[in-house]
Amino acid sequence: CGDERAVTAFTVHLMRHGAVEACGLLIGSTDMPSTAAGDAACIARSQSLCFTRVESSDLIRARRPAESVAALRGVPCTADPEWRELDFGAWDGHATADLTPAAMARFWADPDGNPPPGGERWSGLVARAGAAFDRINDDTLVLTHAGTMRAVLGYACGFSSGQCWAFDLPYACVLTLKVWPGDMRSVQITGLLA
User: Fold this and answer.
1) What is the distance between the alpha carbons of residues 153 and 166, in angstroms, rounded to a whole number?
2) Does the reported pTM lie above 0.85?
3) How many separate helices (H) and strands (E) can be counted in the chain?
4) C-alpha span between 133 and 83 (Å, rounded)
5) Is residue 23 pLDDT above 90, yes or no?
6) N or C: which end of the chain has fewer CB within 10 A?
Protein backbone atom coordinates (compact mmCIF):
# COMPACT_ATOMS: atom_id res chain seq x y z
CA CYS A 1 0.00 0.00 0.00
CA GLY A 2 2.89 2.47 0.37
CA ASP A 3 3.38 5.53 2.52
CA GLU A 4 0.07 7.30 3.13
CA ARG A 5 1.40 10.43 4.88
CA ALA A 6 -1.13 13.21 5.04
CA VAL A 7 -0.05 16.43 3.38
CA THR A 8 -1.00 19.37 5.55
CA ALA A 9 -1.91 22.56 3.75
CA PHE A 10 -1.00 25.96 5.13
CA THR A 11 -2.28 29.46 4.50
CA VAL A 12 -0.43 32.49 3.16
CA HIS A 13 -2.10 35.88 3.55
CA LEU A 14 -0.63 38.49 1.20
CA MET A 15 -1.52 41.97 2.45
CA ARG A 16 -0.85 45.19 0.60
CA HIS A 17 0.59 47.97 2.72
CA GLY A 18 -1.64 50.89 3.70
CA ALA A 19 -2.09 54.17 1.86
CA VAL A 20 1.06 56.22 1.34
CA GLU A 21 1.66 59.94 1.75
CA ALA A 22 1.62 60.61 -2.01
CA CYS A 23 -1.03 58.40 -3.63
CA GLY A 24 -1.19 58.17 -7.42
CA LEU A 25 2.54 57.76 -8.04
CA LEU A 26 4.51 54.79 -9.30
CA ILE A 27 6.32 53.91 -6.08
CA GLY A 28 8.52 50.88 -6.49
CA SER A 29 11.85 50.98 -4.72
CA THR A 30 11.33 54.45 -3.24
CA ASP A 31 11.17 54.02 0.53
CA MET A 32 8.07 56.14 1.05
CA PRO A 33 6.19 55.63 4.34
CA SER A 34 2.54 54.82 4.61
CA THR A 35 0.25 57.12 6.55
CA ALA A 36 -0.70 56.46 10.17
CA ALA A 37 -4.22 55.67 8.94
CA GLY A 38 -2.74 53.27 6.37
CA ASP A 39 -0.79 51.43 9.06
CA ALA A 40 -3.90 51.31 11.27
CA ALA A 41 -5.91 49.80 8.39
CA CYS A 42 -3.35 46.99 8.03
CA ILE A 43 -3.35 46.33 11.78
CA ALA A 44 -7.16 46.24 11.87
CA ARG A 45 -7.37 43.95 8.83
CA SER A 46 -4.87 41.51 10.36
CA GLN A 47 -6.98 40.88 13.46
CA SER A 48 -9.29 38.41 11.73
CA LEU A 49 -6.44 36.42 10.13
CA CYS A 50 -4.74 33.27 11.44
CA PHE A 51 -0.95 33.14 11.14
CA THR A 52 2.09 32.07 13.15
CA ARG A 53 4.59 34.57 11.76
CA VAL A 54 4.88 37.73 9.69
CA GLU A 55 7.12 38.52 6.73
CA SER A 56 7.36 41.81 4.89
CA SER A 57 9.12 43.85 2.30
CA ASP A 58 12.03 45.74 3.82
CA LEU A 59 10.53 49.04 2.64
CA ILE A 60 9.07 51.08 5.49
CA ARG A 61 5.52 51.22 4.12
CA ALA A 62 5.28 47.43 4.52
CA ARG A 63 7.84 46.80 7.27
CA ARG A 64 6.42 49.23 9.85
CA PRO A 65 2.86 47.82 9.92
CA ALA A 66 4.27 44.27 9.78
CA GLU A 67 6.36 44.92 12.88
CA SER A 68 3.32 46.38 14.67
CA VAL A 69 1.11 43.40 13.75
CA ALA A 70 3.78 40.91 14.85
CA ALA A 71 4.32 42.71 18.15
CA LEU A 72 0.57 42.73 18.88
CA ARG A 73 0.33 39.00 18.11
CA GLY A 74 3.62 38.04 19.78
CA VAL A 75 4.90 36.30 16.64
CA PRO A 76 8.22 36.63 14.81
CA CYS A 77 8.64 39.17 12.00
CA THR A 78 11.18 39.11 9.18
CA ALA A 79 11.84 41.80 6.55
CA ASP A 80 13.05 40.54 3.17
CA PRO A 81 13.94 42.68 0.12
CA GLU A 82 12.58 39.94 -2.16
CA TRP A 83 9.06 41.08 -1.13
CA ARG A 84 9.71 44.59 -2.58
CA GLU A 85 7.57 46.18 -5.27
CA LEU A 86 8.63 46.20 -8.93
CA ASP A 87 11.53 48.60 -9.42
CA PHE A 88 10.14 51.29 -11.74
CA GLY A 89 13.60 52.70 -12.50
CA ALA A 90 13.41 56.21 -14.03
CA TRP A 91 9.63 56.18 -13.58
CA ASP A 92 9.81 55.65 -9.82
CA GLY A 93 8.09 58.45 -7.91
CA HIS A 94 6.30 59.83 -10.99
CA ALA A 95 2.59 59.97 -11.74
CA THR A 96 1.60 57.89 -14.75
CA ALA A 97 -0.03 61.01 -16.24
CA ASP A 98 3.42 62.64 -16.35
CA LEU A 99 4.93 59.82 -18.41
CA THR A 100 4.74 59.22 -22.15
CA PRO A 101 1.37 57.53 -22.83
CA ALA A 102 2.85 55.29 -25.54
CA ALA A 103 5.60 54.05 -23.21
CA MET A 104 3.08 53.37 -20.46
CA ALA A 105 0.81 51.51 -22.90
CA ARG A 106 3.73 49.33 -24.03
CA PHE A 107 4.63 48.60 -20.40
CA TRP A 108 1.07 47.63 -19.39
CA ALA A 109 0.70 45.46 -22.50
CA ASP A 110 4.02 43.66 -21.97
CA PRO A 111 5.81 44.54 -18.70
CA ASP A 112 8.51 41.97 -19.38
CA GLY A 113 9.31 43.09 -22.92
CA ASN A 114 8.94 46.81 -22.15
CA PRO A 115 10.22 47.42 -18.61
CA PRO A 116 10.52 50.94 -17.24
CA PRO A 117 13.80 52.65 -18.28
CA GLY A 118 16.46 51.38 -15.88
CA GLY A 119 13.80 49.35 -14.07
CA GLU A 120 12.96 45.74 -13.46
CA ARG A 121 11.41 43.28 -15.87
CA TRP A 122 8.16 41.59 -14.82
CA SER A 123 9.91 38.20 -14.99
CA GLY A 124 12.49 39.46 -12.48
CA LEU A 125 9.77 40.39 -10.01
CA VAL A 126 7.99 37.06 -10.55
CA ALA A 127 11.25 35.16 -9.95
CA ARG A 128 12.17 36.94 -6.71
CA ALA A 129 8.61 36.97 -5.31
CA GLY A 130 8.32 33.29 -6.25
CA ALA A 131 11.56 32.49 -4.41
CA ALA A 132 10.28 34.26 -1.29
CA PHE A 133 6.91 32.51 -1.59
CA ASP A 134 8.56 29.09 -1.96
CA ARG A 135 10.39 29.53 1.37
CA ILE A 136 7.10 29.80 3.27
CA ASN A 137 6.01 26.54 4.87
CA ASP A 138 3.51 27.54 7.57
CA ASP A 139 0.61 29.93 8.18
CA THR A 140 2.12 33.33 7.36
CA LEU A 141 1.06 36.93 6.88
CA VAL A 142 3.16 38.78 4.29
CA LEU A 143 2.94 42.58 4.18
CA THR A 144 4.03 43.56 0.71
CA HIS A 145 3.03 45.53 -2.40
CA ALA A 146 0.33 45.19 -5.07
CA GLY A 147 2.76 44.35 -7.88
CA THR A 148 4.45 41.71 -5.74
CA MET A 149 1.11 40.16 -4.85
CA ARG A 150 0.30 39.98 -8.56
CA ALA A 151 3.71 38.43 -9.24
CA VAL A 152 2.98 35.68 -6.69
CA LEU A 153 -0.28 34.99 -8.52
CA GLY A 154 1.65 34.70 -11.77
CA TYR A 155 4.22 32.42 -10.18
CA ALA A 156 1.96 30.22 -8.05
CA CYS A 157 -1.16 30.08 -10.24
CA GLY A 158 0.35 30.41 -13.72
CA PHE A 159 -1.50 33.63 -14.57
CA SER A 160 -0.18 35.82 -17.38
CA SER A 161 0.89 39.37 -16.57
CA GLY A 162 -2.35 40.63 -18.11
CA GLN A 163 -4.40 38.34 -15.89
CA CYS A 164 -2.40 39.41 -12.83
CA TRP A 165 -2.95 43.12 -13.54
CA ALA A 166 -6.71 42.47 -13.74
CA PHE A 167 -6.83 41.95 -9.95
CA ASP A 168 -7.87 45.09 -8.07
CA LEU A 169 -5.67 45.20 -4.97
CA PRO A 170 -6.42 48.36 -2.96
CA TYR A 171 -4.42 49.47 0.06
CA ALA A 172 -4.62 47.08 3.05
CA CYS A 173 -6.38 44.37 1.03
CA VAL A 174 -5.63 40.72 1.77
CA LEU A 175 -5.26 37.95 -0.80
CA THR A 176 -5.40 34.54 0.88
CA LEU A 177 -3.82 31.46 -0.67
CA LYS A 178 -4.02 27.87 0.54
CA VAL A 179 -0.85 25.93 -0.25
CA TRP A 180 -0.36 22.18 -0.39
CA PRO A 181 3.40 21.56 -0.12
CA GLY A 182 5.50 18.82 -1.65
CA ASP A 183 6.67 17.72 -5.07
CA MET A 184 3.26 18.49 -6.56
CA ARG A 185 2.86 21.81 -4.71
CA SER A 186 -0.47 23.39 -5.50
CA VAL A 187 -2.07 26.70 -4.62
CA GLN A 188 -5.70 27.75 -4.35
CA ILE A 189 -6.99 31.32 -3.99
CA THR A 190 -9.37 31.16 -1.04
CA GLY A 191 -10.17 34.81 -0.43
CA LEU A 192 -9.73 38.46 -1.30
CA LEU A 193 -10.62 41.07 1.33
CA ALA A 194 -10.60 44.44 -0.39
Assistant:
1) 11
2) yes
3) 6, 6
4) 9
5) no
6) N
